[in-house]
Amino acid sequence: MIYTLIFSLIAIFLIAFSVMSVREKNLTHSVIYLFLFLIILAAEFLFIGASFIAAVEVLVYIGAVVTILAFTVMITGGKEIE
Predict the structure, then answer these.
(1) What is the DSSP letter of 3?
(2) How remote is the C-alpha of 60 from its chain's centroid?
(3) Contact of 34 with 50, CB cutoff 8 Å
(4) 32 near 73, Cβ under 8 Å?
(5) Residue in 17, 45, 46 with CA at minimum distance from that of residue 32
(6) What is the pLDDT of residue 70?
(7) Sign of the CA dihedral with 15 first, then 19, 22, and 25 last
(8) What is the structure's pLDDT at 29?
(9) SS3 of 1, please?
C-alpha cells in the first residue's frame, strides 16, 4: 500500500514538472523544470528497481542533454517566448 502511494506521488510530480517545462515561457525556467523532471524520473526508476536505467538517465540525459540546453539558453540570452 505504501509503495503504491509513493509511486503515485512521484508520478504526480513527474506530470507536474513535465507540464511546467512545456508551458513555461522563460527558457531558463523551462530547462530547470526539465532537469527536475529527469531527476525525479531517475528516482522513479530507482524506486521500481531499475538502477541501471536510472544511472544511464542521469549520465546521458542530465549530464549531456540538459547541460547543452542550459549552455545554449545562457549563450542566447534565455528571453521569454512571445
Answers:
(1) H
(2) 12
(3) no
(4) no
(5) 17
(6) 79
(7) negative
(8) 86
(9) coil
6-24 b/e (C-beta count within 10 Å ≥ 16 → b): eeeebeebbeebbebbeeb
Length of the chain: 82
Closest Cα partner for 28 from 60, 63, 64, 75? 75
Q: Are the C-beta atoms of 44 and 11 separated by less than 8 Å?
A: yes
DSSP string, 7-66: HHHHHHHHHHHHHHHHH-SBHHHHHHHHHHHHHHHHHHHHHHT-HHHHHHIIIIIIIIII
Phi, psi of 26 (to 5 degrees): -85, 125
On whether the CB atoms of residues 34 and 21 are closer than 8 A, the answer is yes
For range 57-74, the mean pLDDT: 83
